[in-house]
UniProtKB/TrEMBL annotation:
GO terms for molecular function: carboxylic ester hydrolase activity. Residues 35-271 form the PET hydrolase/cutinase-like domain. It holds the Pfam family PETase. The keyword Hydrolase applies. Keywords: Hydrolase. Coiled coil: none annotated. It comes from the Bacteria. Belongs to the AB hydrolase superfamily. This is PET hydrolase/cutinase-like domain-containing protein. The keyword Zinc-finger does not apply.
Length: 286
């Protein structure tokens, strides 16, 4: 990732939808029924799930609101429909940067769209809009819409894409989950977020230092379900290559996108567990 400038553009918080929902008195849709796939989990998931994975390239000329990208999805519809995940790259990056996340997540039973942004320099507010446009396209117009469950959608992102995931959770409070990874945004007030949110920071991050970005973003959250993980010794870009952090991320998505309560016990891992993102304090789950 290219180091973003600190000054200039200030993001606009998109809270109108949330305010309308609150004013309506419980306008949030009820969670869909729990979906359980596969045997009872005995350990954190890995990057290889039980589903074979198919791939669909998305030309930016064929979509609106985002720059195209790649869709990874479970082959066949026997266990569908599946939750839908939109994943945004960081500043100066594209969908190829996060390519390993596509099969890792789709093999666990999700339809995954890795997006390209309209501009590689788009800030988090624009990336939020693009993430939501990608979700809407998958469930409404894409060739795989028959496999996609419109009631189970979530957002993930790296760096400015992580900031975009947080902003998308502000704009669309009925998302089932958000996973900002080494997020960067100009402010850290996400107290209006109601979406179950897993924030991932990196101990060695010098581009978006966790103490300045990831941790304050987490500390501002008031959502009932929230967790903060710090990857020991890792740098800002550690999520761009295969890493055991996929385990806690998949467990979070299984619990809150699928509603699979069997994964609740994996959401607050012991800080001493070696080899994957360790809990750095802060975990509230339901």
């Amino acid at each position: 990732m290219v180091r973003p400038g600190e000054g200039g553009r200030v993001r606009a918080l998109v809270v109108v939808v949330l305010l309308f929902a609150l004013a309506a008195g419980g306008a949030f849709p009820a969670p869909p029924p729990e979906v359980r796939r596969g045997p009872d989990p005995v350990a954190l998931p890995t990057g290889t799930g039980p589903h074979a994975v198919d791939v669909l390239s998305v030309d930016r000329a064929e979509v609106a609101g985002f720059g195209g990208g790649v869709v990874y999805y479970p082959a066949g519809a026997a266990d569908g429909p599946f939750g839908v995940l939109a994943v945004a790259p960081g500043y100066g990056e594209n969908s190829a940067t996060l390519a390993w996340w596509g099969p890792a997540l789709a093999s666990q039973g999700f339809v995954v769209v890795l997006i390209d942004t309209l501009l590689p320099t788009d800030f988090p507010d624009a990336r939020a809009t693009e993430l939501l446009a990608a979700l809407d396209w998958v469930v409404g117009d894409s060739p795989v819409r028959g496999l996609a469950d419109p009631d189970r959608t979530a957002v993930l992102g790296h760096s400015m894409g992580g900031g975009g995931a947080l902003e998308a959770a502000l704009a669309r409070p009925w998302l089932r989950a958000a996973v900002p990874m080494t997020p960067w945004d100009v402010t850290a007030d996400f107290s209006a977020v109601r979406v179950p949110t897993l924030v991932v920071g990196a101990e060695g991050d010098t581009i978006a230092p966790a103490a300045r970005y990831a941790r304050p973003s987490y500390d501002s959250l008031t959502a009932v379900a929230r967790s903060y993980l710090l990857r020991a010794g890792a740098d800002h870009n550690f999520v761009n290559t295969p890493d055991p952090v996929v385990g806690p991320v998949v467990a979070w998505l299984k619990r809150y996108v699928d509603g699979d309560t069997r994964y609740t016990r994996f959401l607050c891992p012991d800080a001493a567990v070696p080899g994957y993102a360790r809990s750095a304090g802060g975990c509230r789950v339901s």
